Amino acid sequence: xxxxxxxxxxxxxxxxxxxxxxxxxxxxxxxxxxxxxAKYILILGxxxxxxxxxxxxxxxxxxxxxxxxxxxxDKIIAVRGNCDSEVDQMMLQYPILGxxxxxxxxxxxxxxxxxxxxxxxxxxNICEGDIFMYGxxxxxxxxxxxxxxxxxxxxxxxxxxxxxxxxxxLEDNYFCIKSLDGDIIKEIEIK
Length: 191
Hints:
Strand order of the largest sheet: 3-2-1-9-10-11
GO molecular function, one term: metal ion binding
Number of helices: 4
Family: Belongs to the metallophosphoesterase superfamily. YfcE family.
Structural class: alpha/beta
Largest sheet: 6 strands, mixed
Keywords: Metal-binding
CATH topology: Purple Acid Phosphatase, chain A, domain 2
CATH class: Alpha Beta
Domain Calcineurin-like phosphoesterase: 11-171
InterPro entries: Calcineurin-like_PHP_lpxH (IPR024654), Metallo-depent_PP-like (IPR029052), MPP_YfcE (IPR041802), Phosphodiesterase_MJ0936/Vps29 (IPR000979)
Distance between the termini: 27 Å
């Protein structure tokens, strides 16, 4: 019984990035969110627009994506991606225009950003043991370097580098990246 109580107290965060207006892959990601039984959804930018350098993703429909995401507005924490604009904010019922956000989770500070302003080459002022979480590259990343955890869930709609469509799960002292089918791609223990 005690284990079940502890399980209910643990918070799980579903992390996704780079939706780029794909209603198809957003629906797949939200199926995974429900299956994971996560409490919150963290979106690392590029919700609605595909951007001029990207191909059109499957079932490109920014209006439908906005409508779907607005159903989860009380569960979403989001930051602005390089393809997000004030027009996108007018469609969404949760804030997206901050270049970064800070979340405190399990005695850790998580610096959340898209990755086009702050990046692995241009880290913000964070401390050893902190977490730098970003999107933008469409590449799944989970490692520690110089005492800072670097985490990127990849892209749910337009993965790059031969990777699969993916999302992240942050729970307790653990972060993993999963395919939309739920297979673990990368994982790391956060000490």
